[in-house]
Amino acid sequence: MTLFLQLGFQGIALGMVYALIALGFVIMTKGSNTFNFAHGEFVAVGAYVVLALMPHLPYWLAFLGSIVVTVALALLVEATLLRRLLDKGLTTVVLATLGVSIMVHALILMVWGVGTKGSAGPVGSGTVEVGGVVLPLSGIATIVASVIVLAALLVFFRRTPYGLALRATASHQEAALAQGIDIGRMFALSWAIAAVLAVVASIFLASFPRVVSPSIALVALAAIPAVVIGGMDSLIGAVVGGLIVGLIQVLGAGYLADYGGGKLHEVLPYVLMLLVLVVRPYGLFGSRGIERV
Amino acid sequence: MIRKTIPVLAVGALLALSACGGSGSKASADGEDGVEMGPGVTDKEIKVGLLTDYSGPIAEAATSGSLGMEVKFDQVNADGGVCGRKIVAVKGDTKYDAQQTVQAYRGMAGDVAMIGEVLGSLSIDAIKTNLERDEMPAMAISLNTTTMLEPNVYVPLPVFEVELANGVSWAAEEAGASEDKPLKVASVTGTDDYGKAYASAVEAAAEAIPGVEVVAEPTFALTDKDFTAQVSELEESGADVVLLGTAPSQTAGVVGTAAQLGYQPTWISSSGAWFASLAEPLDGLLDKFYVSGGYGTLTDDVPGITELKDALAEYAPDAAPSEFQVGGWLFGEATVAALTKACEDGDLTRDGITEALKDLTVDYKGITPEVNLGDGDSIVSYSSRMNSIGPKGELVPMGDFYASDAAKAWGEANGY
Fold it and tell me: What's the rounded Cα separation, in Å, for the pair A113 and A101?
């Protein structure tokens, strides 16, 4: 039982990181009708900037600095490239985000090199023990911060004028335009929120004992099954999808290691993703009829 | 008429080119000095392919290794090259990805005499049929028996399995293991064939040493981000010593997670599982961490290391020191030795270089004991050396190179 609880805690902590990344994908999809394949690189940029600022600033300022840089990058991409391509069709936009992903990755290699760096988490390697289960502080911080961010997002979308405007834009762009909502500003807002989420996810994805390296962007893309499972336009779905993927990976590594050559836990999220696509193409919590790429 | 003729001619030309073989493996001509020359060889230069990860997940180690090879070539070229020909490195970025490796190989295959290094078992798998078809001599910097057995592929250094088996032997000696004083060991390896080979070597070494017992063999998938399950299994087994058949990023995950869970065994890794930059995130956790390395370090006072340091100072003065530069330098030594012998035999074609590689003796000038490449399917050396970790992550030698009976017994049992 202790092992189950231990693995379950780690699975929830990893799942919350996936949830934060998945939320970024979902908000961009809802807000600007775009699936951004460069989102993983935004996560990587977030981690590298935090790490670069940490020696010079208090941690919270390094974190804020990273948000400023990553949001600026996201807005730059959104304004200079994607908004101009929206009338060219979804395929063109998605391919453009792939191109952006390659460019940002190259930029990261140019600035920070190919090497492995340290951890960028807000807490170190400490732990607390509860009933025989060891809870790493990094895992606790991940879960607490994720819950706070999710609550803030819910309040934003339900209680603030900008949140309501963003929901209206996601629901029906023409109708939102007729109501005087600045669609372009809503596109930018959705990208900015996704960038903030990318930075929050990045510091937990790079928390001890994980480290910052160029491949962190690829790790971030492991959140894609979470997006599909939960539903591409559902905030709750992103969270549930993230938790499902995290729990499958960690519990599977513990209990399914003797099956499928020890690789079952690696494949299962994708099997589940395919099953969801076949049985319920819009995801567990998604809206019927959403267009997929 | 013209509209129809041009496409037909174009297709015909393509077919003719295909029939000739894109890599030009059989094309040869005699040089001014009478040496027969194949693809990638002229009177002035010999092109050698370097297929490694310059921008992917293991680029940190790979670029250091590649630099070690390149400065070796620079040193040899400054002394006149190989039989008057400069060695030119043709670099291909595999990004540690099978498809990228195939593309990079195809891009250079017709233009190089041999592949001086291919990094990554995944990459070797991707191009092994191409290497055989093109009769391309190649050396694999993935030091394991699985790649060693591929046709045309040579591994000129002790394989990771030897390092791990010698590590088990060292741990048993340190602990004074015997039937009355048993030592519990475990391994952590990947789920792929290479991981299985590493685990098998640990098992065989444990079997050969009285009192040593393997109590756990957890595995990880290459995409794993959390190692709680593996560490929990290790802790549950009560293993005193854990052998790591991991890549550096997984080493950080396993050792860091173990520290968080309060499990502190003796860790012994192969040389491929450690990179100096891990010292920062694992600060304070490396007192019982050792690396079993098949070759020496930058701190050694031997002629080979002196030459390497001089070459780095001359040709790459801004490069940060890395132990992988030593590995790359040794591959450079083996490449130069093969080309020199082929040239002395008057045959710098791929067939000639392949012949030269057979039974080639390479003197590594003290960095690691001299090796003989044999038929390419044999382990070239059973020697390795234990190292502890210095404050900046550098390897600190703990004694001399040694070849354990356990490693030799494992090799003999498997026909290596």
Answer: 17
From the CA of A166, how many Å to the nearest CA of chain B? Answer: 34
CATH topology identical between B29-158+300-372 and B160-293+384-413: yes
Which member of B225, B232, B249 has the closest CB to residue A3? B232
Q: In this structure, what token pair is assigned to residue B267?
A: 């860790």
ipTM of the complex: 0.86
Instruction: Assess A121–B contact: CB distance below 8 Å, yes or no.
Output: no
Contact B252 A209 (CB under 8 A): yes
Tens of pLDDT, residue by residue over B113-146, are 999 999 988 889 899 999 999 999 999 987 888 8
| Closest C-alpha among A159, A121, A111, A161 to residue A141 | A121
Indicate whether B19 pLDDT > 80: no
Say if A102 is an interface residue toward chain B (CB within 8 Å): no
Question: Could you read off the pLDDT of B215-230 as tens digits, one per residue?
Answer: 999 999 878 889 999 9
pLDDT of residue B27: 61
Lowest-pLDDT range of A89-98, A124-133, B17-26, B192-201? B17-26
pLDDT digits (tens, 9 = 90+) for A268-280: 999 999 999 999 9
The nearest alpha carbon in chain B to A9 belongs to: B228
| pLDDT band for position A290 (cuts 50, 70, 90) | low
Beta-sheet pairing, B289-293 with B385-389: antiparallel
Closest partner residue to A125 (CB to CB) among B220, B236, B259 is B259
Neighbours of B161 (CB within 10 A): 30
Site from B63, B228, B282, B324 to mutate, A interface, most A CB atoms within 10 angstroms: B228
CATH number of the domain at B160-293+384-413, out of 3.40.50.2300, 3.30.1490.100, 3.40.50.720, 3.40.50.10420? 3.40.50.2300
Residues 6+ apart with CB under 8 A from B201: B161, B162, B164, B165, B407, B410
Enclosing H/E stretch for B213? strand B212-216
Asked if the Cβ–Cβ distance from B256 to A209 is below 8 Å, we say yes
To the nearest whole Å, the CA of B348 is away from the closest chain A CA by: 35
pLDDT above 90 as % of chain B: 75
Reading the block at residue B38, the tokens are: 């194949």
CA dihedral B396, A114, B329, B385 (to 10 degrees): 30
CB contact under 8 A, A114 and B255: no
Domain boundaries, given as residue ranges, for chain B:
29-158+300-372, 160-293+384-413
What distance in Å separates residue A245's CA from the closest CA in chain B? 12
pTM: 0.86
Q: Which residues of B touch A136 (CB under 8 A)?
A: 260
Residues of A in contact with B216 (CB under 8 A): none
d(CA A183, CA A193): 15
CB A245 within 8 A of CB A226: yes
Mean pLDDT lowest for which of A87-101, A143-157, A244-258, B161-175? A87-101
Residue of B nearest to A6 (CA): B228
Distance from the Cα of B274 to chain A's closest Cα (Å) equals: 12
CATH fold for the domain made of B29-158+300-372: Rossmann fold (3.40.50)
**Closest partner CB to B228 (pick from A10, A114, A265):** A10
